[in-house]
């Protein structure tokens, strides 16, 4: 067995990558198959996710667009739809600022095929990323008499917006390396997207895992104490039983003996407004100590980066 401390990484470098690259990087955490990433693996990976209906993976690609309409009728129609999982602000009578994941834009198109703005955004994205919208009811760009203009806003531009608007439209992914008790609590936050290392598919007896299980050092017990020794012996026993079950069972069956102390990796993706809410709850004195162990330093780092919001 191996014991490590918990940690977090803000994945802001991913924002500079293309949508398929971002989605593949996050998606492969589930199977711990990052070793299969190559210069041309992203688009085939994305196509497979779309074909198999793995929509949660498509939540890891978020886009901000500016939509300009010749009249306010399409804007009224758009808000009447109440599209799911999108952040939308009206910048002027004719202009909208809309942020959402590829999944959200796909589902808006599927549910509201006749909406002009849904068609315009999907058409704009499909011209660069057709694999996201293959098989969906896209109209020809010139099929509507009132042309709606769509343009992309990059992350740097989003960060120049006023603090309240930036907090809604700036999405940030954070990868946590923590125990499973922490992730059980983290995934309770609703307006987030999550992808997590899967014990169902990961076989920890494999070479790429070092033929051992990795556990997170408990914040509750001092190393060298009697309590820590009891915990360590329990983890060693669980590892032994898990490997024994693997000789006759699948990983999804053998995992039933694994404890909360197991190391796991999870990517949490949310806008800064939701991160503000998460940190207000998870850094309080009443929060679970293992959660505070990673959330306290994350709060300090986000305050340093976005002092106008945190």
Q: Which whole number gives the mean pLDDT?
A: 95
* CATH second-level architecture of the largest domain: 2-Layer Sandwich
Strand order, sheet with most strands: 2-7-10-8
Name the structural class. Answer: alpha+beta
Counted up, domains total 2
Oligomer: single chain
Question: From the alpha-carbon coordinates, what is the Rg to the nearest angstrom?
Answer: 22 Å
| Helical fraction | 40-55%
The count of helical stretches stands at 13
Distance between the termini: 39 Å
- At CATH level 3, the topology of the largest domain is Gyrase A, domain 2
Largest sheet: 4 strands, antiparallel
Weakly predicted, low-confidence segments = none
Q: Topology as H/E string? A: EEHHHEHEEHHEHHEHEEHHEHH
What amount of the residues lies in strands?
15-25%
Shape: globular
GO molecular function, one term: thymidylate synthase (FAD) activity
Protein name: FAD-dependent thymidylate synthase
InterPro entries: Thymidylate_synthase_ThyX, Thymidylate_synthase_ThyX_sf
Organism: Desulfobulbus oligotrophicus
Description:
This is FAD-dependent thymidylate synthase. InterPro entries: Thymidylate_synthase_ThyX, Thymidylate_synthase_ThyX_sf. It comes from Desulfobulbus oligotrophicus. GO terms for molecular function: flavin adenine dinucleotide binding; NADPH binding; thymidylate synthase (FAD) activity; thymidylate synthase activity. It is a single chain. The chain has helices at 19-27, 42-52, 55-58, 73-81, 102-111, 116-128, 155-159, 163-169, 180-186, 226-246, 251-254, 272-282, 289-305, and strands spanning 2-4, 7-10, 62-68, 87-90, 95-101, 149-153, 171-179, 193-196, 214-216, 263-271. With 310 residues, the protein is α+β, with helices and mostly antiparallel strands. The protein folds into 2 domains: 2-17 and 170-305, Gyrase A, domain 2, CATH 3.30.1360.170; 61-153, Alpha-Beta Plaits (2-Layer Sandwich). The strands form 3 sheets. The chain has a 4-stranded antiparallel beta sheet. Strand 4 and strand 5 form a beta hairpin. The model has no long low-confidence stretch (mean pLDDT 95).
């Amino acid at each position: 067995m191996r014991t490590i401390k918990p940690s977090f990484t803000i994945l802001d470098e991913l924002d500079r990558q293309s949508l398929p690259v971002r989605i593949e990087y996050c998606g492969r955490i589930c199977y711990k198959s990052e070793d299969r990433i190559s210069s041309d693996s992203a688009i085939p990976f994305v196509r497979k996710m779309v074909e198999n209906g793995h929509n949660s993976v498509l939540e890891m690609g978020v886009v901000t667009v500016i939509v300009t309409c010749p009249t306010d009728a399409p804007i009224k129609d758009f808000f009447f739809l109440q599209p799911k999982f999108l952040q939308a602000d009206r910048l002027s009578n004719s202009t909208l600022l809309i942020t959402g994941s590829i999944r959200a834009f796909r589902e808006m198109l599927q549910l509201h095929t006749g909406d002009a703005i849904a068609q315009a955004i999907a058409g704009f994205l499909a011209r660069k990323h057709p694999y996201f919208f293959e098989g969906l009811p896209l109209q020809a760009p010139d099929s509507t008499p009132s042309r709606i203009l769509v343009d992309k806003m990059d992350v740097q531009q989003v960060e120049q917006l006023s603090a309240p608007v930036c907090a809604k439209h700036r999405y940030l992914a954070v990868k946590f390396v923590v125990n499973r008790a922490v992730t059980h609590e983290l995934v309770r936050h609703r307006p987030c997207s999550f992808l997590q290392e899967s014990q169902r598919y990961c076989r920890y007896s494999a070479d790429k895992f070092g033929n051992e299980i990795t556990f997170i050092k408990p914040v509750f017990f001092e190393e060298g104490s009697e309590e820590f020794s009891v915990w360590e012996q329990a983890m060693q026993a669980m590892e032994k039983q898990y490997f024994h079950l693997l000789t006759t069972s699948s990983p999804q069956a053998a995992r039933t003996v694994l404890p909360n102390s197991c190391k796991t990796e999870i990517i949490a993706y949310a806008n800064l407004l939701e991160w503000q809410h998460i940190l207000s709850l998870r850094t309080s004195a009443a929060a679970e100590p293992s959660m505070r162990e990673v959330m306290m330093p994350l709060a300090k780092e986000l305050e340093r980066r976005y002092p106008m919001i945190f």
